[in-house]
Amino acid sequence: MLLGNSMAFAAAEGSVSTGWVLGKLARPAPMRTSFVELRGSKLLKQPLRVSGEYRRPDKDSFVRDVRAPYPEVTTIRAGQATITRAGKSRTYALSRAPELAGLQSSFGALLSGDRTLLERHYTLATSGTQQQWQMTLTPKDKAMAARVRSIMLYGRGSELRCIETQSASAGKAAPGEVQRTLLATTARSAPASLGMDAMATLCHGGQS
User: What is the extent of the structural domain holding 137?
Assistant: First the structure.
């Protein structure tokens, strides 16, 4: 009986649920985390490496601060996005940019621990263990679903390490295109020579 209880306890320790992940990821504002992206293009010989910080200065705002290879700050607040680059700013409604709206409703809601907001915009599915877990967010909104097929989150324990966005067939992105964003310690430790294959390995929890 003791052995059976021990095995059940070990299984419970290793199992993961949506509630457990959301509880671990919640961070009160203000907070910040590093990020690294690689952007492929037929016009580029090598993928473009973009790095910077995501910030949540208060509970109602979300900032994407690109530091390299160019300075650009995107501030999302009150249903609007303001992009500042080269000393010029432009503001428009998030309804015109489903990707940015998705960034706020996914990453912003994760950091605030707002499961109600997440489930308003996405169908959630979680798998893996507490040491290495995955959560899939499938958009419910038709406008966003026409651009984004799914958002996959990869993490270990209380750390969200990578966001993998799968494009839909509609829109400017090529069908099946995947955009990966490394976060936190994974972003800070990413080598300068990081390629697309190594990026995928790091994103999925392996070593480059």
Answer: 16-203
Q: Is residue 10 part of a domain?
A: no
Q: Is position 189 within any domain?
A: yes
* Better pLDDT: 171 or 136: 136
| C-beta separation of 34 from 183 below 8 A | yes
CATH number of the domain encompassing residue 123: 2.50.20.10
Q: What is the pLDDT of residues 37-49, one digit of tens each?
A: 988 767 777 888 9
**Alpha-carbon torsion (164, 165, 167, 168), positive or negative:** positive
In 3-state terms, what secondary structure has residue 107? helix
Average confidence (pLDDT) over 114-136: 93
Helix, strand, coil share (%) of the chain residues, nearest 5: 30, 40, 30
Q: Which helix H or strand E contains 99, and what residues bound it?
A: helix 98-103
Cβ 128 vs Cβ 115: under 8 Å: no
Which pLDDT does position 207 carry in this prediction? 59
Q: How many domains are contained in the chain?
A: 1
Are 35 and 182 a contacting pair, CB within 8 Å?
Answer: yes
